Amino acid sequence: MPFDNLKDFLDRLEQEQELHRVPVEVDPKHEIGAICRKLNVTKGPAVLFEKVKGSAIPLASQLLATNRRLAVALECEEKDLFSETLKRSARQIAPRLVRRGACQDVVKTGKDVDLNELPLATNNPDDNAPYLTAGHVILKDPELGYNLAIYRMMCRSRHEVNLRFIPSHHGWAFLKKAEERGLRALPVAVAIGVDPAIYIASQFEPKIGANELAIAGGLRNKAVDMVKCKTIDCEVPAHAEIIIEGEMKIPPRTGDEGPFGEFCGYTTDKVKDERILTIKAITHKKRPIYHNIWLGKPPHEHLYINAISYGIQAYHDLKVRYPAVKAAYAPPSGVSIKLVIQIDSKMNTPGMVKNLLASTLWTRGAMWKEVLVVDDDIDITNNDEIDWAVVTRVQAGRDTFIVPGGQGSRLDPSSDEFGVTDKLLIDATMKRGFRGKVAEPTKAMMDKIETRWNRYGFR
Question: What are the structural domains, with CATH classification, of the chain?
């Protein structure tokens, strides 16, 4: 059965011994972030902080910070994560509108709006202020449809946040459409504490106009229930824990934003004149749970989701022209700018891999900085196997290619101020004349010992 809300998912994680409850009071300023960092390094469980200093609301974090928890979220086997996510995300199920939602059990508007009632976390010591790191922003446009994504939001006051859109974000296009129509403000809804399918779908980057909430419906095999907002023209997930309703003025009100510890693992500089979102209402369940994502030095949960969602996008972009492509993955250690592509070795024709590598330069907005192609005997989710393929199947002068001065990510601190970076392309497949034969037991023998594993006395 799909998870209708965050609490149902936390209950399942607890059943799977993948959730730890912290009963003592913790400080949202730096202490929670440090705990999450340690859990990332040790691949520890998801965590529910039951007592957060300064707030009556518990805080959940590390929800999808391992592939195992991603598999629990999608109710599939870990080894099937790519294939199941690929299949389900393709069968989109449109959201449905319902009359009432638990996300509006409590409604606060006007002077009653106070962000400080939430357990706002300052995750890293150089962050300028607390950030809403798990705010699922929902935008609506009569021409573009809906957009669901997580954008960074710095808390400015009890009723204001900086909301950062940059030209590569779909949110930027929605803002520009609102300006073209002569609107005085762009309505913005933010859902915090959603079911895991919505969380995963928010990290897809389909073509503008595609509805990520329909992707969420496909992932959970059930339509997402939506309810109309109280103060703006938008709809939000009915079973979310907390909803923020606001408006971004046109022309915008602005203020400085940052520094902020980003997903790439480094602290970004202060941003001048970032747009301000004014909050009109906060609604929530009677006993809400707040969700915080710790971002910083990899690995962390944001990158585990992107590893699958960005890999699927690359797969769709490339599979049409290269039928040999079997799967793609953006390893969490590669901070969403490294891509590993697995091909069907039997379909590897002379020159095909070189063309495939070149084609990645136009996928996903040309963000990829390092791309590898490997054979189908390599587990692309396993860095040990990827390293083995590179060391034993690559000759640097023959199989590596550098494309200088390409468009990349501005969050890559080695790039210039515009995100311009060199691209490294690596053919890590076995070539003609390769002299190695993999030394390993037969599949029949591996299957046999699998059935006898407990009899050997192993757990």
Answer: 84-284 (2.30.110.10), 320-427 (3.40.1670.10)
